[in-house]
Design a protein that fits this description.
Largest sheet: 2 strands, antiparallel
Order of helices and strands: HHEEHEEEEH
Number of domains: 1
Structural class: alpha+beta
Distance between the termini: 28 Å
Length: 139
């Protein structure tokens, strides 16, 4: 009679599972950092006040999810705007104000979409790297 014990195999699988969970967390961290850096360094738009770039923040949401939040004029920059009426005063120079009646609209500057693509590429690369490391450690 031959007795087969699976304790060594089970220990290896537990190590592998822990390594894969850690790999996913590391890949997420890298992807979020890549997205935040891409948005902050984008040359697709000129941020006159700095408010849009200053509003960019990456944060974890749950165990294996994250978001990069952006405020300021991001929604207008990302999608662009159609021509529209502005009834607010605009300061041309110190002490000189004028009213703009019609704004021609703005061209879309999809810096958030570009950052998402970079984050996805970074996550894929990092996941492959970290999973290979986890497999190597589990041997």
């Amino acid at each position: 009679m031959i007795e087969v014990k699976a304790t060594g195999m089970l220990d290896g699988l537990r190590i592998l599972e822990a390594g894969i969970v850690q790999a996913a967390a590391n890949a997420l961290k890298g992807a979020m950092a890549a997205a935040e850096a891409s948005e902050k360094s984008s040359t697709l738009f000129h941020d006159r006040t700095g408010a849009t770039r200053a509003s960019i923040r990456a944060r974890r949401v749950g165990h294996l999810a994250g978001v990069v939040e952006v405020g300021g004029a991001a929604k207008f920059l990302e999608s662009g705007t159609r021509a529209h009426i502005i009834n607010a005063p605009v300061q041309v120079r110190p002490g000189i104000w004028r009213f703009i009646r019609r704004h021609p609209g703005t061209v879309a500057r999809p810096f958030v979409s570009q950052a998402r693509e970079r984050a996805e590429a970074a996550a894929t690369y990092a996941a492959e790297f970290y999973v290979q490391e986890a497999i190597h450690r589990a041997r």
